[in-house]
């Protein structure tokens, strides 16, 4: 986005030139049986969220979340969508693709692990994450 400063708040709730974490990609079914691909994203600052389709919170009116949740209460329950300004939010894959232009894959806990390097003890250890996380940048 030319002419938009770093961390400038956009009308859609996202911050320009800001890193977000991609938490999950969820291929799901709407309550009517149609398919939807949702992305669960987190702002590492734990505040400020997407205001478009699938938004779970509006800072000015807590009841003014996206209508998509009211239309799909079973989906909301199944994936644990919560209405709070915690910096974690959902958006469709199409909205994600339209609003983020760069994905950076970062190893967690050191270098990437080859499958022959993982011990049975490591596989059971839920305390220390291993693998990758991704950072998303909206430009």
UniProtKB/TrEMBL annotation:
Pfam family, one: Peptidase_C2
Keywords: Hydrolase, Protease, Thiol protease
Acidic residues bias (residue ranges): 115-128
Domain Calpain catalytic: 1-109
InterPro entries for the chain: Calpain_cysteine_protease, Papain-like_cys_pep_sf, Peptidase_C2_calpain_cat
SUPFAM superfamilies (UniProt xref): Cysteine proteinases
Region (Disordered): 114-139
Gene3D superfamilies registered for this protein in UniProt: Cysteine proteinases (3.90.70.10)
Family: Belongs to the peptidase C2 family.
Protein name per the record: Calpain catalytic domain-containing protein
